[in-house]
Amino acid sequence: MKVKYLILGAGPTGLSVANYLLNNGEKDLLLLEAEGEVGGLCRSKDIDGAPLDIGGGHFLDVRRPEVCEFLFGFMPRDEWDSYERDSRIRFKTFELHHPFEANIWELPEDEQQKFLDSISEAGCNTGAKKPEKFIDWITWKLGDKIAEEYMLPYNRKMFGDNLNDLGIYWLDKLPDVSYEETLESCRQKKAFGKQPGHAQFFYPKKYGYGEIWLRMGDALGNALKTSEKVKELNLTDRSVRLGDGTQIEAEFIITTIPWSSIELKNAPQEVADAAKSLRHTSIEVTYHEEDMDTDAQWIYFPDEDKDYHRILVRKNFFPGAKGYWTETRSERYRQAQGSINFTSEYAYPINTLDKPNQIGCILRFAKENGVYGVGRWGEHTHYNSDASVQLAMNLAKELLS
């Protein structure tokens, strides 16, 4: 079997590449998905009369108009509600809005002063040299108190105990925490600084977030094949072998699936080794039927005595829903008897020290041979769904040109 465009993985990235190509006249394409339905981490299930997003909390950010316009072509704007983000952090007996450093003013005054003193001594405010290790960098950037009481325990829950295995190259987007600005926010009793992602977002009125991806899958018709697991990718012959032995050749291959999940054939040893070295985390999403008295849509928990790292409260982005769900790294998960639970093997790429070199080595060799990696897993980078769609559209435009 031969096709012009072969796309691997029907999550948001793969679906967007395929539909963009199809909408622009390319009909010689095939999208393969290992699962029985599309959507990847953004799939939804109806649980207790309302949707539950089985891969964690996913929303459509409003910040990319081109992405929103593209997706509204499959699910019109009037089928979405819009929300202002309300996310919070619970630690000790306190609760404050996210991000932590912008909302210290919500704490009792004696606690505010402790954090202010710590921020004033942070290395980024005293001119100290930027450290090269993750733990030292977090303390240098935010001060020892935010680091020890929030950032470090939360990241251990997300990525494991050995935080110095992580690089710092992905942290530069964090703004400096200015002592003067933080002090002024405490005086004026209002937040300061840049809003986090999803400050405003869309969520479907009648469905889970997975609905948009189901519709994009339907739009592809016979160009989509589900329950087709790719076992082997031949980088030089631009072909794949499926679990049943079927081989498919292509002029271009676009992969959005984890590089470590497939066997790479005809790859230099350094490329094969790089793919095997890429690390990721798995998560468990568990439904709890009791209601929570909060207006927050999601809440972060740095407390390491709790196995989960965040919860999502359905009623605050899906009116009429009850209950909430927790998100937990699989290694920490303590299963509740009789609970409704979903496992995502590939949830978050881990930004290890050598990841830029590893993924760079893979992508360079692949592209030289007509194979393109794109999106969260194709680039092994923690992109939200809107960013993944944008990257998919950009690649499709490049291929069409």
Summarize the structure.
The chain has helices spanning 12-23, 65-72, 109-120, 123-126, 134-142, 144-159, 179-188, 210-220, 269-277, 355-368, 375-378, 385-400, and strands at 2-8, 29-32, 44-47, 50-53, 60-61, 80-84, 87-91, 94-97, 200-204, 224-225, 230-234, 239-242, 247-255, 263-265, 280-288, 298-300, 310-313, 324-329, 340-349, 371-373. With 401 residues, it is an alpha/beta fold.
Distance between the termini: 25 Å
- SSE-based structural type: alpha/beta
Shape: globular
Helix content: 25-40%
What's the alpha carbon Rg, rounded to whole Å?
22 Å
**How much beta, percentage-wise?**
15-25%
Figure out the total of helices: 12
CATH 2nd-level architecture of the largest domain: 3-Layer(bba) Sandwich
CATH topology of the largest domain: FAD/NAD(P)-binding domain
Mean pLDDT metric: 95
Q: Please provide the count of β strands.
A: 20
How many strands, which pairing sense, and closed or not: the largest β-sheet?
8 strands, mixed
Q: pLDDT under 50 segments (min length 5)?
A: none
CATH superfamily of the largest domain: FAD/NAD(P)-binding domain
- Per CATH, the class of the largest domain reads Alpha Beta
Count of domains: 2
